[in-house]
Design brief:
By secondary structure, the protein is α+β, with helices and mostly antiparallel strands. It is built from one helix and 17 strands. The protein is elongated and about 130 Å long. GO terms for molecular function: carbohydrate binding. This is DSC-2.
């Protein structure tokens, strides 16, 4: 559990806007958790002037406990955007299309923060430079409303020749990197396309081979041997080849038995068979199994 208190931090990745050369301006206001100071409604402001890029302003409040909202203004307190609770940030009409905003006053992606609000200008201009103020509204341990604010000045200047050369050099490096990425993607695409063509060729060969395979029509059954016609369950494309064998054979004599099975006719839809006994054969009862295969 963090003790009551907070640190309000307003920071930017650029302290000076150079039109054309400055691609983005990010302004981030965050409320850090914890008891950072021992002064009531006091502030400790720090500006990092030793670096050309990046500047930070900090203010501390001992009794800052529960964050409710964050507001960022410019100049004479003209509101740019605000965020309340877990709602999406609201950008004022005058700044719609000029800045984008992300943030949350309930939590943050950083564990040490109560909330944050970040504004981004794409290709900032001279007129975008100003004195920016971030104000955070909260409740103290007694549930009374309190606020904490911090300001940060962003200036602007026309880029000099050195700035422009750095910008052009940076762009050239980015263009070269994009060309390399494009070449890599093109080579990858060509490789994938070659694999697709190879798979398509194999698929076509498979389809051709599959088309050449004729599914066989095979049917079977049994019949009691006499003069009988058997109808196929489904017609053949051509008269099939019939194979048969005895399943059961009963006769009334121990003498030699002569038995003849004649396939009288075979066509695409049925076949006719006639069974006959030999000259000296007694009565015989036979069951025949048959199988028909297309050829």
């Amino acid at each position: 559990m963090y003790p009551p208190g907070a640190k309000l931090v307003l920071e930017s990745d650029n302290k000076v806007i150079y039109p054309v050369a400055t691609k983005k301006l990010n302004l981030r206001c965050s409320v850090k958790k914890g008891n950072w100071g021992r002064r009531e409604h006091g502030s400790d402001t720090k500006n990092n002037n030793s670096q050309e890029l990046g500047t930070t302003s900090v203010s501390s409040e001992e009794l800052f406990e529960h964050l409710m909202s964050i507001v960022i203004t410019e100049g004479k307190r003209q509101t740019i955007a605000s965020v309340t609770g877990c709602d999406k940030p609201v950008i004022e009409r005058a700044f719609e299309g000029v800045v984008t905003a992300v943030g949350n006053a309930e939590n943050s992606t950083k564990l040490e923060e109560m909330g944050h609000l970040t504004l981004t200008w794409d290709r900032p201009l001279l007129k975008d430079a100003d004195n920016f103020t971030c104000e955070a509204f909260a409740l103290n341990p007694d549930k009374s409303s309190i606020s904490l604010s911090v300001s940060l000045e962003i200036t602007a200047a026309e880029p000099n020749l050195s700035d422009l050369l750095d910008y052009i050099s940076s762009n050239d490096r980015q263009v070269e990197l994009l060309k390399q990425n494009w070449t890599f993607l093109q080579e990858t695409f060509n490789s994938v396309q070659a694999n697709i063509l190879q798979l398509q060729s194999k698929t076509n060969d498979f389809d051709t081979a599959l088309a050449g395979i004729k599914s066989q029509n095979i049917q079977s059954g049994t019949f009691k041997c006499r003069h009988v016609t058997i109808k196929f369950a489904r017609p053949f494309d051509f008269p099939p080849k019939i194979f048969s064998s005895f399943i059961d054979l009963n006769f009334e004599s121990n003498y030699a038995v002569q038995y003849t099975i004649n396939y009288v006719s075979v066509n695409k839809t049925h076949f006719t068979v006639r069974c006959t006994l030999g000259q000296y054969s007694q009565y015989i009862n036979a069951e025949i199994e048959w199988i028909a295969i297309d050829v």
